[in-house]
Predict the 3D structure of the following.
Amino acid sequence: MNAIAQLLARTGLLKLDYHLLRAAMVIIFAWFGYDKWFESEIRGLLPIITHGPLISWTIPVLGIRGTAILLGTSEWTFGTLLLLGFWNNKAGMLGALGSTFTFIATFTAFPFVPDAWDAGAGGFPAMTNNSAFLLKDLVLLAVSVYLLKEDVKRIVTRNEGTARTGLQANSPAVASGSPTGATPSTR
């Protein structure tokens, strides 16, 4: 086991976790967001949406089409912010925050979804498709929180590094790339 652990550590493969999880979430939000633009998708999700304590308001207030637009737009926005997070931690943080709220909202429907437990198999804990569909949101929530933590850590670390050097991020010295912190002279 130690040899396998050392081999994995040397390959550098395990350093990809942050980027791999971010890429996976971008793909998921792109795909889920695309599906939401179709009324048939929202109709299929009605048992979940109407029983979710944080999302049940959408159908009565927005209707099916409005809910589709809200969810599709939200998911594409969060996916885009997560994608931008490869280059900009603040955009990534906003995407991860939106992603976290998304999966909190959907996972809280888990205990309230009708027909969640397979009566033919004895009920709880035998899941039906409704509960299995929502259970994946627990993993997506964990990934969202991990990305949020990593982006916040990167932002705070960068801000602390800037504060230690005495430079403000928007100062002329930083903007000019001056290593001494002095503003460039005019000639």
